[in-house]
What we know:
CATH architecture: 3-Layer(aba) Sandwich
Structural class: alpha/beta
CATH class: Alpha Beta
Shape: globular
Number of helices: 9
Helix content: 25-40%
Strand order of the largest sheet: 3-2-1-4-5-9-8
CATH topology: Rossmann fold
Low-confidence stretches: 1-24
Distance between the termini: 10 Å
Strand content: 5-15%
Number of strands: 9
CATH superfamily: Class I glutamine amidotransferase (GATase) domain
Largest sheet: 7 strands, mixed
Amino acid sequence: MKRVLLASFVLAAGVFVSSSLLASSGRILLVVTNHAERGDTGEPTGYYLSEVAHPWKVFRDAGLEVVFASPQGGFAPMDPKSFDLEDPVNRAFWETLHAVESLATTRPLAQIEPSRFDAVFFAGGHGTMWDFPDHPDVNRLTADIFEAGGVVGAVCHGPAALLDVKLSDGSYLVAGRRVGGFTNAEEAAVGLTDAVPFLLETRLVERGASFEGGGDFKEYVVSDGRLVTGQNPASADKTAAEIVALLND
């Protein structure tokens, strides 16, 4: 309704405004991991840069306000293997002071009021496998936003946030829903099957999800109502775009 009124005003005034300015001007919570070490391997991990930078650009281009948060708040570590500044979207993000500062000073989920957000998006990175599942504030915020009519999205390992989310009727959010995420085959391909605490695809199926996957490291996004999940880094842009489309519906 707000978009219709704005469009009517613009047309009546004889002013041209690009369609992107008529997009939903809402707020999205972008959640990243605080976990910096891959199990007991001593190897660094964290969020995956392109799974933050690309959705951030899509959301910002759509007129959404992006708020960065994490389970603990404060500094969010980046997986150094994802630091690819030859990717122009990554570079633009990394050269935006406000964005980088926001990742160094994320808001703790315990301080987030879900009613202030239209959507929540969980970025991936192997670190999420340790601090997203069974986190009380991850579960609370996700359920509250979803049951209030908001959109829930996640990409790659980000769907680890969905594993223990229960709705008010006691059912798992993912139960009976089509869901994607980093596949068992992809985990094996990167040689980390034994390094992660569980396999994401397997655990989602155990929670009752109807898991869908595409080719290894190829773009694949699953939308089931107001739940949007992407398989891997290549799926980050489309996952974000599907979230925006739902918010503008």
